[in-house]
Amino acid sequence: MGVISANPIGEAGGPRRAAFDAAFQGAAGAFSESAAIALLGVGVSTLPCPRFEDVFDAVASGKVACGIVPVENTLAGTVHPVIDLLVARDLSIVGETVLRISHALIGTTEATLDGVRRVLSHPVALQQCTSFFAGRPDVEAVPVFDTAGAVDMVMRSGDPADAAIAGAHSAAVYGARVLATGLEDDAANFTRFVRVVPRFAEPIPADAAGTVKTTLVFTVANRPGALLDCLRPFADRGIDLAKLESRPLRGSPFEYAFLVDLVGDTTDTDVGAALAELAVLTRTVRVLGSYESDSAGVTRDAAC
Fold it and tell me: What is the dihedral sign for C-alpha 121, 127, 128, 130?
């Protein structure tokens, strides 16, 4: 994952190699680390970061070759802090993976399911396991910053009455015990992760075996019909827009940037023509990347 173009000159005057293959938000054993393994392989070296901003900073500085960040979940929706960073920062998307999110109850080696009284986890994970808590009114849900980090906290406390909701794989990371699995209310729980790199550090994949997706962001004048005009170039050419997301523009009250996922490559004739037309209709437009879509992710039974 090796040499990258950001800050390319090392002390000896040659290319500088990143200290880690990938950065992710959360503690060791987090779902984002599983996404890094899915994208880059079992031997990937990873850098856990406390905040999404730290992931983007690590990529921009050259400390890591890439960042792995979640952009949407089928139950919780868009991960807005990441979308805002994609809009604000000058990085490129070069890949994606979709993981099934299955939650387990994890405690100390002495813990039992009936003895648990406090359950720590990320707020979104707690919200995805409401049936578990509904059947146990004497169990307190405690929100913390991260699922895997919750397992670490439980093991550090050593209290068998404490447990965490996280991926079952994180139990092995911290020497913990899996007390129950399949806590999620809905089995159709998937998260889409993308891989970001310094802008233009990697070429658009020319040999993608599956569907290629392109992500772009644009801003428009605040006038009636502006967004409709911007979408028409894609509709006229039959280009599938997989997602359209609006985010507030900082410093411009009640104005928005629009993030679009479309099916197709920027090298496609129709996509290129639509983007050229879009450039005339918008204030700004920036392609964040074209990359192979993980369209098989929702049918793959990932153990994470």
Answer: positive
CA distances from 48 to 28, 80, 155 (A): 6, 20, 18
Residues 6 or more apart whose CB falls under 8 angstroms from that of 43 comprise: none
- Main-chain dihedrals φ then ψ at residue 297, nearest 5 degrees: -60, -40
- pLDDT tens figures, 169-210: 999 999 999 999 999 999 999 999 999 999 866 655 556 667
Q: Catalogue the active-site residues.
A: 191, 193
Q: Which of 280, 288, 285, 281 is nearest to 218 (CA)?
A: 285
- Segment 130-163, tens digit of pLDDT: 999 999 999 999 999 999 999 999 999 999 999 9
Question: Which positions ≥6 away from 237 have C-beta within 8 Å?
Answer: 270, 271, 273, 274
Query: In angstroms, how far is the first alpha carbon of the chain from the final one?
Result: 23
**Which domains does the chain show, CATH number per domain?**
20-101+189-202 (3.40.190.10), 104-180 (3.40.190.10), 212-292 (3.30.70.260)
